[in-house]
Amino acid sequence: xxxxxxxxxxxxxxxxxxxxxxxxxxxxxxxxxxxxxxxxxxxxxxxxxxxxxxxxxxxxxxxxxxxxxxxxxxxxxxxxxxxxxxxxxxxxxxxxxxxxxxxxxxxxxxxxxxxxxxxxxxxxxxxxxxxxxxxxxxxxxxxxxxxxxxxxxxxxxxxxxxxxxxxxxxxxxxxxxxxxxxxxxxxxxxxxxxxxxxxxxxxxxxxxxxxxxxxxxxxxxxxxxxxxxxxxxxxxxxxxxxxxxxxxxxxxxxxxxxxxxxxxxxxxxxxxxxxxxxxxxxxxxxxxxxxxxxxxxxxxxxxxxxxxxxxxxxxxxxxxxxxxxxxxxxxxxxxxxxxxxxxxxxxxxxxxxxxxxxxxxxxxxxxxxxxxxxxxxxxxxxxxxxxxxxxxxxxxxxxxxxxxxxxxxxxxxxxxxxxxxxxxxxxxxxxxxxxxxxxxxxxxxxxxxxxxxxxxxxxxxxxxxxxxxxxxxxxxxxxxxxxxxxxxxxxxxxxxxxxxxxxxxxxxxxxxxxxxxxxxxxxxxxxxxxxxxxxxxxxxxxxxxxxxxxxxxxxxxxxxxxxxxxxxxxxxxxxxxxxxxxxxxxxx
Length: 588
Ligand code: PEP
Ligand code: MG
Description:
Bound molecules: phosphoenolpyruvate, magnesium ion
Mean pLDDT: 87
């Protein structure tokens, strides 16, 4: 079927227009066929198998080096277990013997040996052993691809620019990614607030997610246009489509250049209100891009990436080293370290997590940490130790009850005492906050606020949990409405409760990165906005065109609306009147 010029519609999650060649990753492992060998072909087949092992070993080692450079030794250790599997003498011995005795092709024998192990492991009543199945699957798929001469995607070592096309990308895929050559990602699943999307924005790589099964129309090496602002992908564009998109790329570059010129101007409304514009980051080397975008600190440091190690444990020294490095790099500004928020779409296949029917409603974030005190205490020790080297704050995610928050605070107090007893330096007065991202916490903000120094609004989850809509499911993304009047009213309630208790509040959900919503957020009384560094200049430009009393009037109107569309229209009209350049151009 000729798909030239076909336009696919997904969710644009990281802005930018890119034209490039498709690189399919994670495509199904090739089907293995049984081939009978002649006597004189057997040794050649054994050598072919050994060559596939050598290739696999080389690819895994390269991946390990790359992750080591970006994330450190511990995160890279995930690949040690993969190397052990490639070199497993029992498996290798059985395959070589099988090729010789059965006179069958290497992939056929290899697959039957692996199948045997897989079945045996499935019976073992130990979740750690069963978790190794994921590694076996991964390594076996790589070896079979290499035997078939199939390209195994190694996103850490690319030689040519490409657009990565995948079902989804795991944290280890994105952690090792070669940022120089990956020009865009497009995925079948995901939404604006899914983890892949957040990573794409963090790395400043244009991305479209949630393309569902339409992604199957794309073949390797096809030319694609990816428009991360509009959520569009064009396969094999026609000359006319190329002209339109090349023009858009130029316009976008001009707009960004203009915006960046103003990046050093103060983040202040027309009537002189100062707004703190901070950055959301996940990797220490993103501090540099935050500095370039003139962020005034780190409003959210997601720590999940430090847990990508094969045993899922937390190495205090490695964590301390990273937190200290970040705290020193951002000084004299502050950094808010959020404790581990694992679960939901932030999966780490190596952490022993229970299999759940509803992961977003399950053992996630603070619940997991209070359950795995060994991991939690070590992370708190490392953050506290880093607080002696900069302005460090701690944030607990996904609090849903008062008791849960009190438990987390009690663990923190206990860890502080332990450090004091050991004579280890830390800042005993560091600020502690909670994320309000569960509706129950929002409604209970007046009871929670007195116990902490600040509240951070996690609208990604607040919208998901309030509207009962999975943030990563593209089929229901039309229901994912940050401007739903229920959300605006809930935020208003939280802000009032926080100010009544003399505490401060910031917003770190993706809502903060959307220029359209900036007037609404300021009008609600939130003066700290934390977002992906690349989003800062544009949002700042909008802030500089707002008058506070007008923004407050916008909120007064928004809370009387019945639908998200009405609120969005109010926001659009506000920008049309005050700063029309910030509105995306209409489709041609
Ligand atoms: C949020 O929920 O808004 C948030 C910032 O946290 P995350 O996206 O990491 O769940
Ligand atoms: Mg969240």
